[in-house]
Amino acid sequence: MKKHGVINTVLLAITLWHAAVVADMQAAKAFLDAEIGQVSVLTRAEQEAEMQWFIEAAKPFSGMAIKVASETLTTHEYEAKVLAPAFTRITGITVTHDLIGEGDVVEKLQLQMQSGQNIYDAYVNDSDLIGTHWRYQQVRNLTDFMAGAGAAVTSPTLDLDDFIGSRFTTAPDGKLYQLPDQQFANLYWFREDWFSDQKTKEDFKAEYGYDLGVPVNWTAYEDIAAFFTGRDMRYLGGPARVFGNMDYGKKDPSLGWRYTDAWMSMAGMGDRGEPNGLPVDEWGVRVDENSRPVGSCVARGGATNDAAAVYAVTKAIDWLRNYAPPEAAGMVFGEAGPVPAQGHIAQQIFWYTAFTADMVQPGLPVMNQDGTPKWRMAPSPHGAYWSEGTKVGYQDVGAWTLMNSTPVNRAQAAWLYAQFVTSRTVDLKKSDVGLTFVRQSTIDSQHFTDRAPRLGGLVEFYRSPARIAWSPTGTNIPDYPKMAQLWWQNIGDAMSGDKTPQEALDALCAQQEKVMSRIQRSGAQGDLGPELNREQDPRVWLDAPGAPVAKLADERPAGETIGYDELIRSWQE
Q1: How confident is the model at residue 8 (pLDDT cuts 50, 70, 90)?
Q2: What ranges make up the beta strands (E) of 146-261?
Q3: CA-to-CA distance for 168 and 342, rounded, in angstroms?
Q4: Given this model, what pLDDT does residue 355 score?
Q5: What pLDDT is stored for residue 153 in this prediction?
Q6: DSSP SS3 for 451
Q7: CB atoms closer than 10 angstroms to residue 552
Q8: How far is 310 from 551, CA to CA, in rounded Å?
Q9: Closest Cα partner for 393 from 246, 267, 550?
Q10: 18 pLDDT more than 80
Q11: Phi, psi for residue 178 in degrees, rounded to 5
């Protein structure tokens, strides 16, 4: 009797297990039917096979509840509201996906690093912290995790080569530390309908002596800003008064991002190199041949306070005051981003493609009735100190990050969720919603070939060779959370007029070196940490090749523009 009882128990367990698997697959099919449909690079059979793998891999974690955090972007809202509940139904792992401010994400992650307390099981954390993660070694390096504790929960269809931002999340040791989840660039934005109008073009040519078009350099951007500011555009259905520039200037953490996000390198500060300037990067921080930070101020070989950096800050302040709406000076990043959609901005030199989804809504003043935009995006112009090979733009790469302080089983469950929301089954649909591409297969899809005319140049940019010149903060920065907060405070002093740009940048570089000196003395980063150069006469470094640089006699070369169609053709050729 006992034998029969055991057999019955086993049969019952098998039956219940089979029923659970069927139920999970039914949930997966319902999700694919209702949400994905044909908006995927995979066939339906391939989608179901990928979902079946997640079902099987998640069995050991069924009933577990995990918490993850990301900043509030359209892409992450889609993950939190649509993908997280679907993952929960399909796998039995309950996911709470918290949407918090970008600064809050860094703060929580920093607290977890310092305390060892497991606050979140995973973070979508900007790859700007790659230098921090590599040096402190407090996050799991995914290369070793996927080969070890995470092997059983690493999807055979993950296809890391398909991720366009993985080079930004790979440290000098060759290890992958973060998995890209969303990616967007800062580009030039302009009203193509105004720029292509014959009367507008003739008026500009008469005043400035060259053609109105996409500005190649900062002189042309400034001329175009002056031309449009105060101009009556009612003859094209626009407002009676428009502005030639849009930006933001409130003393707030987002003001720091506006400058660390490649603004200095666009002006020409820093050295040539991909993905970041080497040995001096877009923050002005110099590293030695062993990737150890050695200085930020010119006296130590850095460039944070050199002539190109001062020029960059000066121009941004001048343009904000002279050519942007008065209220822009009191705005933060999130407030300023949607303003061009209101229809009174002619161009913006530093515009994030993350706002694309909100700029293509029907009925906006910047949209045509047929659903195509009146605006376009293009590479941002570069400043007087720029030379070929110097970084000319920024890409934000939000990437899944697993802390060492997270228990291994919770990290494994979180890793499953991270792969689910970046899987090829869902990535095309997620990108369709948020327009923050991370996979080449999505960018190359027929779906986005068809949708491209309605996205103002976004697809063309991401398919172009120009894309590789846009990159996040690199590995020169040893402690992003501590150093990033210095930027908005010091740049804020320049924006308010409390300090000149030179004074503000002198203070900034000195404070960056103080942080690096403290890290050096603590030994917290070992052989990877800073080892500051001794101070020298700045002339020694200014006379040497590369960054830092001395002031140019002429910071305003002749304006140069290019036709938008010609620019697109050059990419295609």
Answers
A1: low
A2: 179-191, 214-215
A3: 34
A4: 87
A5: 98
A6: helix
A7: 14
A8: 9
A9: 267
A10: no
A11: -145, 150
Taking the C-alpha atoms of residue 217 and residue 77, their distance in angstroms, rounded to an integer, is 36
Q: How far are the Cα atoms of 45, 87, 129, 427 from residue 31, in angstroms, in the given order? A: 14, 9, 34, 14
d(CA 267, CA 382) in angstroms, rounded, equals 6
Please name the amino acid found at residue 569: R
Domain range annotation of the chain = 2-180+396-469, 253-310+479-542
Range in 52-56, 82-86, 337-341 with the lowest mean pLDDT:
337-341
Helices 424-434/408-422 angle, 10° precision: 70
- pLDDT tens track for 172-224: 999 999 999 999 999 999 999 999 999 999 999 999 999 999 999 999 999 99
Name the amino acid, one letter, at 362. P
Quote the CA–CA distance of 260 and 254 in Å, as a whole number: 10
- In terms of C-beta density within 10 A (0-12 exposed, 13-18 middle, 19 or more buried), how is residue 133 classed? buried
Under 8 Å between Cβ of 325 and 344: yes
Residue 37 has pLDDT above 60, yes or no: yes
pLDDT above 80: residue 10: no
The rounded mean pLDDT for the chain is 93
HSE-up of residue 334 (Cα within 13 Å, Cβ side) = 9
> Which one, of 91, 144, 36, 105, lies nearest residue 418 by Cα?
91
Per the structure block, which two tokens stand in for 51?
């979902």
> How far is Cα 46 from Cα 423, in angstroms, rounded to an integer?
11
Residue that has been written with the tokens 């320049």 in this structure:
494
Contact 69, 120 (CB under 8 A): yes
Is the pLDDT reported for residue 550 higher than 90? yes
Name the residue type at position 531. Answer: E
**Separation CA 515–CA 482 (nearest Å):** 7
The residue-averaged pLDDT of 263-267 equals 96
Domain 2-180+396-469: CATH architecture, name and number where available: 3-Layer(aba) Sandwich (3.40)
Distance of alpha carbon 52 from alpha carbon 28, whole angstroms: 8
CA distance 431 to 448: 10
171 close to 478: Cβ distance less than 8 angstroms: no
**Strand, helix or coil for residue 561:** strand
- 522-to-478, 518, 527 alpha-carbon distances in Å: 13, 6, 12
CA torsion sign for 309, 306, 167, 117 is negative
What average pLDDT does range 325-343 have in this prediction? 93
- This prediction has a pTM of 0.90
Query: Per the structure block, which two tokens stand in for 314?
Result: 């000066």
Statement: residue 1 has pLDDT above 70: no
The three-state secondary structure class of 520 is helix
Q: How far is CA 418 from CA 137, 368, 460, in A?
A: 20, 37, 28
- How many residues are recorded in the chain? 573
